[in-house]
What we know:
Layout: H1 6-44, E1 46-50, E2 52-68, E3 71-75, E4 80-85, E5 92-93, E6 98-103, H2 105-166, H3 171-228, E7 231-233, E8 238-243, E9 252-253, E10 258-263, E11 268-275, E12 287-292, E13 295-309, E14 312-318, E15 332-349, E16 360-367, E17 370-381, E18 385-390, E19 397-401, H4 404-407, E20 411-413, H5 414-419
Antiparallel strand pairs: 1-19, 2-11, 2-15, 3-10, 4-6, 4-9, 5-8, 6-7, 8-10, 11-14, 12-13, 12-15, 13-14, 15-18, 16-17, 16-19, 17-18, 17-20
Helix pairs in contact: 2-3
Keywords: Coiled coil, Membrane, Transmembrane, Transmembrane helix
Subcellular location: Cell envelope
InterPro entries: UPF0194_transport
Amino acid sequence: xxxxxxxxxxxxxxxxxxxxxxxxxxxxxxxxxxxxxxxxxxxxxxxxxxxxxxxxxxxxxxxxxxxxxxxxxxxxxxxxxxxxxxxxxxxxxxxxxxxxxxxxxxxxxxxxxxxxxxxxxxxxxxxxxxxxxxxxxxxxxxxxxxxxxxxxxxxxxxxxxxxxxxxxxxxxxxxxxxxxxxxxxxxxxxxxxxxxxxxxxxxxxxxxxxxxxxxxxxxxxxxxxxxxxxxxxxxxxxxxxxxxxxxxxxxxxxxxxxxxxxxxxxxxxxxxxxxxxxxxxxxxxxxxxxxxxxxxxxxxxxxxxxxxxxxxxxxxxxxxxxxxxxxxxxxxxxxxxxxxxxxxxxxxxxxxxxxxxxxxxxxxxxxxxxxxxxxxxxxxxxxxxxxxxxxxxxxxxxxxxxxxxxxxxxxxxxxxxxxx
Length: 420
C-alpha cells in the first residue's frame, strides 16, 4: 500500500488557506469600494442651488469642418510625367510660384517641327511674293510696249489719212492702218484687265501665304505655351491646401487633371452637420459659437440646406475675417448654435434632463429650516439653466435631488439634506 508523504499534505493545506484568505480580502475590497461609490453617489444626488437673475441660452450642437470660401485648382494643361514637386501643402504661394514640374519629351519634338513649319511658311511667302512681282513686271512691260505701239499706229493712221486724201495711197492701206490701231487699243485694254486681275490675285495668294505663316506661328506659340505649362504654377495668393493622393514623382498626369488646391486662409466658412430634429429650431442669421481648437469664434448661420442625409442636415456658417492662426481649410470644428436666448430673467439650474418648455414642476424650496415642495412654472429650457415664470423669486434656495426617498416627501429637513 502506497502512503502519501506528510510533507505533501502540509503544502496542499497551506495553498488552500492562502487561497481562502485572498478571496476573502478581495470580497472585502469590492464591498468597501461599492459602499464608497454609493456614498459618493448619494452625496452627489442632492444639491442646493440659488435662484438668480440672468440670461438663459438654448443651443443645439453641430460639427464639421472649415472650408475656404475662395479657392482655385491647379490643373495640368498638358500631358506629362511628374518630375519634381517643388511646394507641399501648408506652403504660402503667390501668382507664378512653381508647385509641380512635369516633363514631356514629345513636346520638344513638337517644338522642332513647329519651328520648321514657320521657316517653311516664311519661304513660301517669299516665293509667292517673288512670283507675283515677276508677273507684274511682265504685264507692265507688255502694257508699255502696247502703249508705244498705239502711239505709232495713231501717227501712221494720221499720215495715211493725209496721203489718202491726196491720192498718194490707196483706201485699203488707210483701212489696214486703222485696223492695226484698233487691235493695239484692244490689246491695251486686255492688258489693263489682266493687271487688275493680277492685283486681286496678289491679294488672295499673299493672304493665303500669310495665313499659312500665321498658322505656323500660332502652332509654335502653342507648343511654347505647352512647354511653359510643364511648370504648374499658382494663379493667386493663398495657401497650398492639399495635393491629390496620386501626385507623386514619376506618376503620369493628363491634360485637365486637378493636381492641387490653393485656398485663401483669410476667408473661411464653416460647413457643419446637425441632427434633422435640431434643424427645426435653426434659422438663417442665428448666432453660432464655433470652437476652433479650444478658441471660440462668433459666427452666424448663412444658409441651411433643404434636404437631409443620414438623418443629418447641412448648414454653412459665416465667420469673421479675423480668425485664430490655427484656422485652416479642412480643420475639424464643433459648434453651438444659439436657437433661443432670454436676457435678465429669473432662472435656476436645470433640475433634470428632458424638461419641456412651459411645463409645471414641483421643487423643494427652502423655508427656514425646511425645504417645502412647491409648484414652479418653467419657461425657456436652456442648456444649463431654465427660466422661471412663477413659483420662485430671486434668492430662493432650491433643493435639487434625485434621491427617490426624498422626492416622495412633501417637505425635507435641512438637517436631513446636510446629513445626506
